[in-house]
Amino acid sequence: MLLKLIFRNAMRHRLRSALTVLGMAVAILSFGLLSTVIAAWYQGVESAAPDRLITRNAISLLFRMPMAYLPKIRAVPHVKAVSYAQWFAGIYIDEKNFFPQFAIDPRSYFRLYPEFVVPEKHMEEFLRERGSAVAGRKLANKYGWRLGDTITLRGTIFPGQWEFVLRGIYHGARPNVDESQFFFHWDYLNERNKKLNPRRVDEVGVFLVQVDDPKRAAEVAQAIDATFANSLAETLTETEKAFQLGFVSMTEAIVQAIRLVSIVVIVIILIVLANTMAMSARERTGEYAVLKTLGYNGGYLFALIAGESVLIAAAGGALGIALTFPAAALFGRALEQYFPVFAVSGQTVAAAGAAAIVVGALASVQPALLAMRVRIAEGLGGIG
């Protein structure tokens, strides 16, 4: 009986209920998209491995380190594996075509990053040809690259025209792995630098260190930095997560602003739904008095109003969540250059659903309390 009354009350003013559901859907859709933006912003942080460290020049990432550091880092206790990479920053056709490009040591790099899955045949071709490259599946699809294509990048940090033959396309081992990166041989970069940029020979941007026990990460980081203390290129070693957080912290104000907007959106729809329920409660004062006359207590009235509010909020929330997925897909395609991984997570769906239910419950409190306090004589006096 209670559920039937809740449903009928919700459908009594269909236009009002429909508009409220639509408003709730728009609010939950906005909340879901904003939450997904924040999750995409922190994607690098969330995907960081606890056993990986990043060693860079203590001054800045713009300053490089000599390759001679490699055996010394490898000799530090509890270091399991070491690789290295150099940011390239080349331009593909037009400056707007930005994607991450790294000169790497293929064998050690992909062992250190098993989340980048390169088919065995592709890897064999990549290792065999020094002027070859491997690109992410998403990146290759975006530009229509196929295996064997020649890709030309115009160097910025390293001037000149650089040609690479695409020999491999990797995919992510997990859905949240970035598939928009471009890798090529560090040896190829170094050999050309011997002719074009002699001052930049045998240098790398970062060393990538894997420790045998994540609990010893801080100890290993300190040992590495102590090894190169007072040298011409002192180092700063930190966990991969801390390294990624360093980039996110540069835009922390933007992230906080997005969080604030998502909260404001929920508060606004809470006010709208509360007003809707207050209007409904005022219109049904006489009905509540009749229910009290028939012996229904205040708790029943509270459940009746709260149930209607939660039903409307849940319907709007379900619609908003359903719309979030196609909206996120469109948003992700439009901004894939900035958010290589843009997907609605289960956590976002759960948060949006919980927000809808909480809004529905809170919006019913004040109207329900008023209905519970209605005196039978006053309520019946308004009938007729």
Task: Write a brief caption for the model.
By secondary structure, the protein is an alpha+beta fold. It has 15 helices and 12 strands.
Number of helices: 15
Structural class: alpha+beta
- Overall morphology: elongated
The whole-angstrom Rg is: 30 Å
Architecture overview:
The protein is of the alpha+beta class and 384 residues long. It has 2 domains: 2-44 and 251-381, no CATH class; 59-233, no CATH class. The protein has 15 helices and 12 strands. Strands 1, 3, 4, 5, 6, 7, 8, 9, 11 and 12 form a 10-stranded mixed β-sheet that branches. The two termini are 26 Å apart. The model has no long low-confidence stretch (mean pLDDT 87).
Write the layout of secondary structure elements.
Elements: H1 2-12, H2 14-41, H3 43-46, E1 52-57, E2 65-66, H4 69-74, E3 79-87, E4 101-104, H5 106-112, E5 116-117, H6 120-128, E6 132-136, H7 137-143, E7 150-155, E8 160-172, E9 182-185, H8 186-196, E10 203-204, E11 206-211, H9 217-227, E12 235-239, H10 240-249, H11 252-283, H12 285-293, H13 298-334, H14 346-372, H15 376-381
Parallel strand pairs: 4-9, 6-8
Antiparallel strand pairs: 1-11, 1-12, 2-10, 3-4, 3-11, 5-8, 6-9, 7-8
